[in-house]
């Protein structure tokens, strides 16, 4: 049992180091040697858990995406009205974004650069299925604009990344009032 825990701890240390280094240096400036050093393992140890750097980043992305969507959809009720359902999801995304900054920055990097391979990206999108289903239901009911999911996401969810970066740079503070204003703007951007 102790050997299994030690193995899990090493893998988790590699994931944590990957997130931190990609966030601070970017994907291309994050060599496997730096990841190993930060995780306090030998470079050869990485290859016991991951095929290569791409596999490490893809698996890290999917783990973080799973944590993100588990949190986001934890309080979501499928039978809620479109606006209430969207509000619950959106506010959980905002909460995760503010409370789990390292994960949020990592996902933001992965979503805005081509570092994740296509199969991992498609797997990551599956994690958002409850939101996509809500939007589809909203389009059918005439409550959501008949736009593609990518457009709805770009105008209602992506602005949270901008606000998080502004907050990290201490140019802006996401107060409770501003979160309400941001949600209202997000809703206004997609409602019919």
What is the percent of helical residues? over 70%
- The number of helical segments is 11
Average pLDDT, all residues: 93
Strand content: under 5%
Low-confidence stretches: none
Distance between the termini: 56 Å
Q: Total strand count, please?
A: 0
Derived from helix and strand composition plus strand pairing, the structural class reads mainly alpha
Series of secondary-structure elements, N-terminal to C-terminal: HHHHHHHHHHH
Tertiary shape: elongated
Q: From the 3D structure, determine the CATH topology of the largest domain.
A: Tetracycline Repressor, domain 2
Provide an overview of this structure.
By secondary structure, the protein is mainly alpha-helical. The chain has 2 domains: 1-50, Orthogonal Bundle (Arc Repressor Mutant, subunit A); 54-190, Tetracycline Repressor, domain 2 (Orthogonal Bundle). The protein has 11 helices and no strands. Helix 1 (2-25) crosses helix 2 (32-39), helix 1 (2-25) packs across helix 4 and helix 1 (2-25) crosses helix 6 (101-112). The longest helix has 24 residues, at 2-25. The protein is elongated. The model has no long low-confidence stretch (mean pLDDT 93).
């Amino acid at each position: 049992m102790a050997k299994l825990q030690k193995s899990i701890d090493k893998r988790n240390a590699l994931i944590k180091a990957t997130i931190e280094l990609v966030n601070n240096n970017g994907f291309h400036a994050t060599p496997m040697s730096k990841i190993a050093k930060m995780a306090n393992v030998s470079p050869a140890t990485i290859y016991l858990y991951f095929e290569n750097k791409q596999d490490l980043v893809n698996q890290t992305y999917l783990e973080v995406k799973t944590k993100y969507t588990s949190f986001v959809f934890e309080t979501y009720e499928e039978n809620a009205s479109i606006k209430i359902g969207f509000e619950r999801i959106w506010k959980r995304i905002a909460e995760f974004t503010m409370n789990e900054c390292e994960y949020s920055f990592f996902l933001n990097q992965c979503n805005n650069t081509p570092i994740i391979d296509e199969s991992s990206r498609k797997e990551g999108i599956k994690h958002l299925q409850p939101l996509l289903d809500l939007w589809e239901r909203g389009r059918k009911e005439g409550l959501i604009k008949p736009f593609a999911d990518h457009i709805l996401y770009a105008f209602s969810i992506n602005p949270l990344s901008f606000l998080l970066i502004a907050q990290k740079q201490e140019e802006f503070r996401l107060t409770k009032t501003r979160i309400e204003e941001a949600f209202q703007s997000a809703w206004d951007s997609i409602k019919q």
